[in-house]
Amino acid sequence: MTASTDHPITTPPRAPSPVQGFGTLAVHAGSPHDPATGAVIEAISLSTTFAQTAVGKPIGEYEYSRSSNPNRHNFETAVAALENAKYALAFSSGSATTAVILQSLAAGSHVISVSDVYGGTHRYFTQVAKAHGVKVTFTPEIEVDIREHITEATKLVWIESPSNPTLRLVDIRAVVTQAHKHGIMVVVDNTFLSPYVQNPLDHGADIVVHSVTKYINGHSDVVMGVAAFNSDELHARLAFLQNAIGAVPSAFDSWLAHRGAKTLHLRAREATTNATAVAHALEASEHVIAVNYPGLDSHPHRAIALKQHRNGMGGGMLSFRIRGGHAAAERFCRLTKIFTLAESLGGVESLVELPSSMTHAGIPKDQREAVGVFDDLVRISCGVEDAEDLKKDVLQALELAVKPANGVDGTKSA
């Protein structure tokens, strides 16, 4: 049974371009000069509580830091500007952001999600959401078969574009058009691209979420999440849960993330330049089975990237299948010299990891492989180092990993 169409959601047209460019907004949005000192960079407000002039009458807009804090407020203002949104709410992690959005749904609600999602999102959907009565259906081809999965209980569609770690793209407007006919909201996880490369709200999405830990902060020193949206009703509901659940970031983390966001456009451009160079080098290598990168013309969804991404950019993330199976993939991850073997992504430093054994290890093998997460799949996050150095590092590691000498780590035994 399909959901009722009595209460469709009006899909907004593409938002008008901001009056100021992205770089200008990144530097100045949510960054007022201090009226007392003239400081151009905000102070860190560590106070947990704020004085009141009378009972129930705070001096300013802040009462208690779980509810609101100057640093968090400024960061939220900045993210809202960068995502062309009316509101943004920050949380203690990307996973906390996901949890709050799912907890905003009534018991008995149904969610449709793309299959290849971040392992933490998959864990929440399969092991936590059902505990409060929310059922999730996964589908690998969400634009094609979304209507087949819609029921009277369907309240939300969850998209990652690009997906983690196979870099599949979703036509956001196509999914939104179908979902909104049935009164169903659409959430897009935009972590892999950042607000600089893609703005899902411009394509009709209702909520855009980020692990701020990644590109928005960009320096691998903050764990944080954020959601941005335009609906007044959504703001009231999610802000209530933000305060009630209390999964909020500290003032210092908010300050760090805001500082990181000021250079987002510079870092995202450089990461894209580097990932494009590395992707071309991998694609040309005899040691590689396939490369997943939206910036390549060979990517099956390249047309979507040209439509949805700023200047058709591919972003800083890519993955590839290496010849030699899981053993070769493990060797590759140990043999890079500039790329660090570690989880996470989106920082100034380049990282490499093996999803099947690391970020996505909690997903059953058959489910992983059904969406392309094979044991020989390597995921790369390109940082802002010199592109030529990153290319050389990848190629030398490939050579040693696929054609090891006498030692198991690709080095000759003594």
UniProtKB/TrEMBL annotation:
Pfam families assigned to the protein according to its UniProt record, in alphabetical order: Cys_Met_Meta_PP (PF01053)
Top EC class of this enzyme: lyase
Pathway, per record: Amino-acid biosynthesis; L-cysteine biosynthesis; L-cysteine from L-homocysteine and L-serine: step 2/2
Catalytic activity, EC: 4.4.1.1
Cofactor: pyridoxal 5'-phosphate
UniProt KW keywords: Amino-acid biosynthesis, Cysteine biosynthesis, Pyridoxal phosphate
Single GO molecular function: cystathionine gamma-lyase activity
Record-listed N6-(pyridoxal phosphate)lysine modification sites: 214
InterPro entries registered for this protein in UniProt: Cys/Met-Metab_PyrdxlP-dep_enz, PyrdxlP-dep_Trfase, PyrdxlP-dep_Trfase_major, PyrdxlP-dep_Trfase_small
Family assignment from sequence similarity: Belongs to the trans-sulfuration enzymes family.
Protein name: cystathionine gamma-lyase
Species of provenance: Trichocladium antarcticum
